[in-house]
Write a structure and sequence with these properties.
heterodimer, A: alpha/beta, 5-stranded parallel sheet, B: 123 residues, alpha+beta, 4-stranded antiparallel sheet, 8 strands, 19% helix
Chain lengths: 133, 123
């Protein structure tokens, strides 16, 4: 079991993850942008780190800043929730390389199944029936 | 709009008290004075501070034991390095965004800093 995880998401998604972590006794780290500093997920989490300005590309999608936040807080794993970095194979790969657990599929599997056309090709290779375009 | 965190905390407390008073008849609601604690966190004037542009670890001097980049009372110019913020083993020199005298250094050597955190206050 993890002692501390970082939640790379905001709002209700992050709140739901924090709730599950509290039930399991896992410490939580919330990340947020400068304008979200008073939002619910920041208040509920045990720790919070402001990672960037209001545009998501500078905060919730800012991989270098999130990696720094992981390093500073000593989180063992990252829960991406859904949307944002949850289907980003690059992010998942960087985490794997840094020996931080990504709570979700491996980067290899995201790459295989994240793209619908690619996913269909692979499904066909394995003899599964797919709807042709 | 800026929301004072203390007001939210007070409101949460009041709500908890109300809940307790509903279930427990003997529970006495303490009167909360909303005004006395709302100004605990003083908002620093954002126009006169240099904020961190990245998440990382702040270092006040170029190397351990060396002279600090800035001292309280010293005059600095726009563009002068005020400290280093290390992120993922990269030493980022943080330039001052303003001219002025250093009033206060808000972080300690080796302290983690987040985006938008005040690093130094100028006057």
């Amino acid at each position: 079991m993890f002692k501390k995880i970082l939640i790379a998401n905001r709002g209700e998604i992050a709140v739901r993850i924090i709730r599950a972590c509290k039930e399991w006794g896992i410490l939580t780290v919330a990340i947020h942008s400068d304008v979200d500093k008073d939002s619910m997920h920041v208040r509920l989490a045990d720790e919070s780190v402001c990672v960037g300005s209001h545009q998501p590309i500078n905060s919730y999608l800012n991989i270098p800043a999130i990696m720094s936040a992981i390093e500073l807080t000593g989180a063992e794993a990252v829960h991406p929730g859904y949307g944002f970095l949850s289907e980003n194979s690059e992010f998942s790969k960087i985490l794997e390389e840094n020996k931080i657990k990504f709570i979700g599929p491996s980067s290899k599997h995201i790459k295989m199944m994240g793209d619908k056309i690619q996913a269909k090709k692979i499904a066909k290779e394995y003899g599964l029936l797919v709807i042709e375009k | 709009m800026e929301i004072d965190k203390n007001i939210i905390l007070k409101l949460i407390n009041v709500l908890e008290d109300l809940k307790k008073s509903l279930t427990d008849k003997d529970y006495k609601i303490e009167t909360h004075d909303l005004e006395d604690k709302t100004n605990v966190i003083k908002q620093e004037d954002p126009k006169k501070s240099v904020k961190s542009p990245i998440v990382g670890t702040a270092y006040l001097s170029p190397e351990p034991g060396a002279k600090k980049f800035v001292e309280v009372g010293k005059k600095i110019k726009k563009g002068d390095t005020i400290m280093i913020v290390e992120a993922m083993k990269t030493m980022n020199h943080i330039p001052s965004s303003l001219d002025g005298g250093v009033k206060k250094i808000c972080v300690e050597d080796g302290q983690p800093v987040e985006f938008g955190q005040n690093l130094i206050i100028l006057e």
